[in-house]
Amino acid sequence: MAFGLAHRKERPRVPLRHGEGDKHRLTSLEGLAALSLDALSSVAYGPEAIVVVLIAAGTGALTATLPITVVIVILLTVLVISYCQVIAVHPDGGGAYAVAKKSLGPRVSLLAAAALIVDYVLTVAVSLAAGAASLASAFPALSTHLLAVCLVLLVLLTTVNLWGVAESARVLMLPTVLFIVSMLGIVVMGILRSHPAAVVGTAHSVRATESLGALLILKAFSSGCSALTGVEAIANGVPMFREPHVKRAQHTELMLGVLLGAMLLGMAYLIRRDQVAPRGGVTVLAQLAAGAYGTGWEYYATSFIVTLVLALAANTSFGGLPVLMSVLARDNRLPHLFGLRSERPVYRYGVVALAVLSALLLIAVGAETHRLIPLFAIGVFTGFTISQVGLVRHWATEQPEGWLRRAVINGLGAVLTTVAGLVLLTTKFLEGAWLVMVAVPLLMLLFTRIQRYYTAVGEELGLGRIPPPPAHTMSLVIVPVGEVSRLAQRALTAALALGDEVVAVSVQAEPEKALALRDAWERWNPGVRLEILDSPHRSLVQPMVGYVRRETGTGREVAVLIPEVEPRHRRYALLQNQRGLLLAAVLQARTDAVVCRMPYRLRL
After folding, report:
1. Mind listing the domains of the chain with CATH numbers?
2. How many C-beta atoms lie closer than 10 Å to residue 404's C-beta?
3. Which of 37, 207, 503, 593 is the most buried (most CB within 10 A)?
4. Comparing C-alpha atoms, which of 564, 547, 540 is closest to residue 488?
5. What band does 282 get if pLDDT is binned at 50, 70 and 90?
6. How far is 596 from 561, CA to CA, in rounded Å?
């Protein structure tokens, strides 16, 4: 070779189709933005949930915030480790559902799936409602339009996710980074200051109504565990990551655990040190921001970022639920259309279903956050517990190297999540948690009925069995025609190639037109028999359906080839009649004939 270059045999490059390859999948950082905003944004209400419960025992009880948060972070650590294991064991996604299906049986897997679906829908509703409420705090004029704000945000999120999961992650990347920086800034600046830089809100008189006992501590712990919602989303969406998707998903899970744990511990320390109690007109997070930054532009920028991220946290569900629904569809527990992906790839039917369910829930509660909170987190803790128990069963069955240590970690996580879930359920039952207890069994029943239907269909179709050889029977192709034309010539040419016998059928309401058509047909002489059906009531469909039914009753295989005019430009489509589409729909519904539509494409 010239210039001393040796000849190289190059592999032929096959061009990728749109949506193939890693371009439209997530990196670890993009996964953090697309699937972790729900968990990260929970620092806006998780510590406050603990404070609101503890304040019932007086301001002195706020010292318990830090040890309770330490236990929650320990639970977070266990969950992160567990879900890293789930990602490795079940790389196809599905999270708690996949674990339960493999290790705990079909009924428990149905419970996990139903709980996760409820949690994902509630996550969208709560995030949007909280974001709208926070926005209304800055702009009071919006306070009477919370539902409209929520629905507009929901439409925007749905549109972005229908475009593509990687695209939604890129849109969310900047808000995610700003949120992380501002929250860690609150922790660092707050610790560096010896006392709060500013105090915001109006003081409340605090009267102790309870003693700081075990029940109150358990209640504060379970309420604070709302900060853990969303930890499971990464394990549910593993297929969305770029190769190697298992390692990328695990790295994202670990990043989430480190960031969330640091934020929770830092804020709990500041709450304990500065005795941050609930004040009128502001959140606990706003008080911490004012204590760290003062009331300058940093404070207002942080408030805006928190508002934005709370609203965008709903995107976590759009990343996780469609993948879970696709897994359920693959298992015949949801309609198969939820397993269809678009080119990018996006499970668009799952995205739309999540948007519709969330919109209905927001409309039902009027976008009021306090009506949604009692329903929140119960479903996700059910999923937590199931995944932990399932992993214990998995390690005990497989017994790989180091299985006992892993089983102990998962067993501890199962105990903690069970306690938190039971306390949440008992304390919030009358406030609306009973709705979750109704919705979950109904979803399980729906999954069971769908699976039973697909099983019955499989039996009737003989799926998995070798059928007898196909029998050759005489066939008849029926071609509806209106008059002699190139359209009729094209349709008859196609029909002669398809069947043993071809007949042209025309429905005429006026005898003069029928005679004219017969005369033109005889002059044309295409070699195909013409049948003219009388229709005094000017109905095209009914006479044609009756004729097709009579022919199918003779035992022959009957096909109906319907020619249709298709303009080149869409703007002319409305100028064509839709009789072919209507006839095809009615024939498919009322006869056993094979119905085909043949387009005749115009140059116009």
Report:
1. 28-454 (1.20.1740.10), 475-601 (3.40.50.620)
2. 11
3. 37
4. 564
5. confident
6. 5
